[in-house]
Fold this protein.
Amino acid sequence: MSCPSCGLGMEGSFELSPLGQLSTDDQAFVIAFVRHHGSIKKMEALFGISYPTVKNRLNRIAAALDKTFEAPPEKSANLYVLEQLARGELTVEEALEKLG
């Protein structure tokens, strides 16, 4: 990552938020939508687009966001059981049963 204005850079492994994974244009659209309290009429006027275009774009953005909230794979579920065991929330027997 680097800042284009000051040139400061950072290297490493970063996880972006679901909104941060959207394109810059889609982020601007979401920001405008929130700032205008979800008014589709305002979005029509602001972006010069029709009601169906606003709805289609919101649906596309929502679908992109939904992908980041999909159920974890089975291995992650097993890891969750092990974490519960480590925190003392499950007994060994309960953990083995869930992992079974």
Notes: The mean pLDDT is 88. Residues 72-100 form one domain.
